[in-house]
Every structure is written in structure tokens, then in C-alpha cells.
Amino acid sequence: MVTLLINIFVKEKEDVKNPKVRQQYGMLCGLAGIILNILLFLGKFLAGAVSGSISITADAFNNLSDAGSSCVTLVGFKMAGAKPDVDHPFGHGRMEYITGLIISGAILIMAFELVKSSLEKILHPEPVEFSLLTFWILLISILVKIYMAFYNYKIGKKLDSSAMRATATDSLSDTCATTVVLIGGLVGKFTNLQVDGLCGVLVGMFIFYAGICAARDTLNPLLGQPPEADFVHEIERIVLAHKEICGIHDLLVHDYGPGRRMISLHAEVPADGNILDLHDVVDNAEMELRTILNCDAVIHMDPVVTGDEYILELKGTIEALIKEIDSVITMHDFRVVLGQTHTNLIFDVVVPYDFAISDDSLTKQIQMQVKRRIGNNYFVVIQVDKAYLR
Q: To bridge 45 with a disulfide, which of 60, 134, 180, 205 should be the other Cys (CB 3.0-4.6 Å)?
């Protein structure tokens, strides 16, 4: 059903980096979620009222909260698709993340209320009537929630949307919750064991765990998580495709919401090259990043010596000795300042955030290796940078 609606209403469905297309996907899935969850609420509420089951009634209100979450998703995608303005020059894309966080909060509140009601039912058990109608309502609900989890996860993955992944997680938790309720009802009917309250507690704990996971996934981009490895590699591929650019470093990715990322990086170019020609190359690379990755890009040119054999030999020696310390270390911005009494070797090294050696210890190790391998009159001036990726 959702696929059919997408084919009808989303005209450029493959252009998922386009904020307008993302908005259409999000609003369509949000509307579908509202309709399906309201229907599930009505069916389960009827079944809970007829049977007197606290777990079925609680599960019904869980679906009602899901309908509210779908409303939040719909509004969130609508707001995220708004154009940049004076107060928000980078757009409103982070509303997707905020939407996911609100959905996670709703999941956690519902889990708490469900556990509270179920504990009361354990302390004061009441008989539950489990009919064939109740069985079919719960079974259909499970199948509908499986379908909702499937399409939300599939589209969330396609859009790289934390809000839709949170909705998919919520639907999957609802599937498990309703399954527990169904099993509890069957056990109560055929064994006369009063397990309705216990099933409600289990459902509540599972929903609580799902809410924690969903909150983590939506908080990370708001707090500033590193870009995906594939995204970084694609940036490198696009920029280094220009033969005039020798290397890149100091890459920064600022995430203002899906489809609203800003890139800044340093591109190494030959120091003896024509500055106007190199500037044109860098402009072309920036334009390709905007066109292919749909993000703003700023590239700073770093001139490096490419024709001096003495400097290139020193650079190769330094690269070899830092690899002996640890193979994950990389180097860039290598410069040589000659003096009458000593020579300064100036460069940056890049290490992972969880690197075992401290910055000061690493600098001292490199200095010792340089004095041992090259000579006592060589000194290193090092800036230690942190890498997104290992």
C-alpha cells in the first residue's frame, strides 16, 4: 500500500537527498501511520473492554500513542522541509532528529505507564475473558505492525532518517508486545493461570528498551557524531579525482539535518603550480561536491613542495618512522625550515580519538626517532589532529 502511494505521490522518489522529496516521503509515511494506528487502537480497545484484559487495553493505548508519534513525524518532516530563513540560515533539517527524540520520549512514557498498570494487575488479579474475536484482532494487529516496521525501516534506511528508524523500532517493539499479550491470553484461557499482569510487565520492559535504543539513535546526530565512512570515502574520491590535487586533510562535516551538510577541507596542491589554474580546479571540486553529495563545500588550498628531492626524501623518512610507531598514524602539511644551527621539520599527524598514546608522548617518540635516524640538529614541530575514522 505504502509503495503504491509513493509511486503515485512522490514524483522524484529516487532523489532522496532532495529536502522536498524527503518531506514527501516523511509526510506520506506519517499519514499512513496515523490511519493504521488509529484502526489498531479501536480494535484493541474493543477487545480489551470485552475481555477485561489490562495488557490488551494497555497495548491499545500504546497504538494510540503511536498515532500521536506519527503525527509528530508528519509535522517534523513538514518543518524540516522548510526553506532557510533569516533566523535559520542553514535550514530546518534537524527537526527530523528532534522528531525522532520526541517519538522516543513517547515510547518511554508509554512503557512506564504500562509497567505501572501491569504491576497493579499482578497485585490485584482479575479473570480475563479471551474470545475468538480477541484472538483475531491481536493476530491482525501483529501482522499490521510487522508491515509497518518493514516499510518504515526500508524507507528510513533509504532516506537515512533517524526519525523513521525510530518509528520502525517502535513498530517492531509493538509487534513483540502484542505477541506477548496474545500468548498470555492463550495461556490464561487454556490453563486458568492469571498471567495478564506479568505479560503487561514484560511488554512494558521491552518497549522501554526499544525507547532507549531509539533515543540513542536520534541523540547522536544532535550531539555531533562522525560522518559515515562511505560519505568520507566519497568526498575523497571526488576531490582526488582532480590530478592537480595531491591529497586532502582537515576534513570537517557539519550536519544540519539530512540533505543539509556542510563540508570544509584542505586540499594539497603543488607549490610551484599556477595559482589561477589551481583555484579553478578547487572551484570545480567544490561544485562537484555540491552537485553529487547535495552539500555546501569550502576547500582551502595548501601549497606543498613536490619537486625538491631533498624535502621529498625527508618526508618519506618521516612517514616511514611514524608508521613504525603505529600504522594508523598519517601525516600531512610537511614543511622544512632550514637554519644555520638546526633544521625544523613542521608537519601534522593524524591519530584516532581512542589512540593509546597521548599527544605529548607521541610527539616525544617522533622527536627521538628523528634524532636517531636523521640527526641531532633536526627538530620536529608537530600538530596532533584527531581522525574521524580508523
A: 60
